[in-house]
From TrEMBL:
An example molecular function term from Gene Ontology annotations: glutamine synthetase activity
Stored Pfam families: Gln-synt_C (PF00120)
GO BP annotations listed: glutamine biosynthetic process
Keyword Metal-binding part of the UniProt annotation: no
Domain GS catalytic: 118-434
Protein known as: Glutamine synthetase
Family, per entry: Belongs to the glutamine synthetase family.
């Protein structure tokens, strides 16, 4: 069956959704912030018919999480949006649709380049996996979040969901849970695969478990879920946050655990694939935990603190769930999931290419856990960026040196800017964004 052309897709979408006026052309920048240009639907159709490219922005991948722009010598050039029309969906906001985009970049008369685009980096890694090893993947996410509200007396954000966590049914009676159910109903109507919803953490934290999809669709689905959560609760005067540590005085933290499985499952490939990831885990942390506040989760049962894996073990960064299926626990919502997933899968493919042995013991076995002393993982973003910059694991062979260099430049500039900010102001910014 032939794939419909963009014009046909848009005309059918307009017929199916006559209430839609706006389309958000969205991309996730290097700081994990979702950004977009908003166009009128009729204008979009006219541009597509004429074959006119859609501008994103010259600074599309140059912004830090606190909205500063990386200093550059002009000319900056322009990023152009490359919509993936298969991701076109009604957004949570009425009258608006969203479509996820790759980005091409050009300076003056030079040819278009995709070297800096996280989405296209992931596409490239997936193509290498298929071409060389006939390998595909399934990915699913666990979305942890806390409901907060502005406190008029202190003008600060405070937790307002207080139900008991750790799967306690009493936590489902919290007033906030009705809006969780409302959000899940709306998401399922959009075709999102929701497997489970439950209380998490100590008090006031919830988790939505998303079903597995191919990697690109899984990340697109995750971004849709974030949008619906944020929008649904804001309509009722609340703020949902997935930020890693929203309240400094509380131990409660949010992760964004990722389930990853080889397709087809392979007993001959899984050991070297896992070895490739573990060998490069200190570098990968710069993508998985991309803010200084992310490292508040550097402890067992959260992100972990040493390189290691274990069958059904939650004290290490990677839990083996079943053959060829792992849970990567050292990720939070501030990560750009396209580049993060490209880096993780690329590391696994490097393990396959080098037939790297799995020398790390299974820490799900108590005897191994008692005797094993693993390599400490980076204690800060600065430390993980330095390891990535050295790139002894040759991740650049998979995701490209231009992307690594630009990412390091953005993050180091971001660190310098955020050092000037009040720590509480940073937390509240992350609550707003994530």
């Amino acid at each position: 069956m032939e794939t419909p052309c963009p014009t046909e897709i848009l005309e059918q979408f307009r017929e199916d959704h006559p209430e839609i006026t706006y389309i958000r052309f969205q991309w996730q920048d290097y700081s994990g912030v979702l950004r977009a240009r908003v166009l009128i639907l009729e204008s979009v159709i006219a541009q597509v018919v004429k074959g006119t490219p859609i501008q994103a922005a010259g600074i599309a991948l140059d912004c830090t999480v606190d909205n500063h722009i990386l200093p550059r010598d002009p000319p900056r050039g322009m990023h152009w949006a490359v919509p993936d029309w298969s991701s076109l969906r009604p957004a949570s906001h009425p009258g608006t649709a969203m479509v996820m985009c790759a980005l091409n970049f050009t300076v003056l008369e030079r040819p278009l380049s995709s070297d800096l685009c996280p989405r296209q980096a992931l596409t490239g890694v997936l193509q290498k996996a298929r071409q060389t090893w006939e390998l595909d993947f399934l990915v699913g996410f666990e979305v942890e979040f806390i409901v907060m509200k502005s406190d008029p007396s202190s003008n600060a954000m405070v937790r307002c969901s207080n139900g008991l966590g750790h799967f306690a049914v009493s936590g489902l009676r919290d007033t906030c849970f009705q809006y969780v159910e409302q959000c899940v109903t709306r998401l399922r109507a959009q075709g999102v695969i929701v497997q489970a919803v439950h209380t998490e953490g100590f008090r006031g934290q919830y988790e939505i478990v998303l079903g597995p999809l191919p990697p690109m669709q899984a990340v697109d689905q995750l971004i849709l879920v974030h949008d619906y959560l944020k929008d649904t609760f804001s309509r009722h005067g609340y703020e949902v946050t997935m930020s890693p540590k929203p309240i400094a005085s509380e131990s409660q933290a949010n992760g964004q655990h990722m389930h990853l499985s080889l397709q087809p499952a392979s007993s001959t490939l899984e050991a070297s694939f896992l070895a490739g990831i573990l060998k490069r885990l200190p570098s990968l942390w710069s993508f998985c935990l991309p803010l200084e506040s992310s490292y508040e989760r550097r402890k067992p049962r959260m992100a972990g603190n040493t390189v290691g894996w274990g069958t059904q073990s939650r004290v290490v960064p990677i839990r083996k769930v079943e053959p060829s299926h792992w849970e990567v626990r050292c990720i939070d919502v501030t990560a750009n999931m396209y580049s993060t997933l490209a880096a993780i899968l690329g590391a696994g493919l490097l393990g396959l290419a080098g037939k790297e042995p799995l020398t790390w013991p299974d820490l799900g076995i108590p005897a191994n856990q008692a005797s094993f002393c693993g390599e400490p993982l980076p204690r800060s973003l600065d430390e993980s960026l330095a390891i990535l910059n050295a790139d002894d694991g040759l991740l650049s062979a998979m995701i490209g040196r231009p992307m690594i260099d630009h990412y390091i430049n953005i993050k180091r500039y971001e660190i310098s800017q955020m050092k000037e900010m009040d720590p509480q102001a940073i937390r509240e910014l992350l609550i707003e964004l994530f």
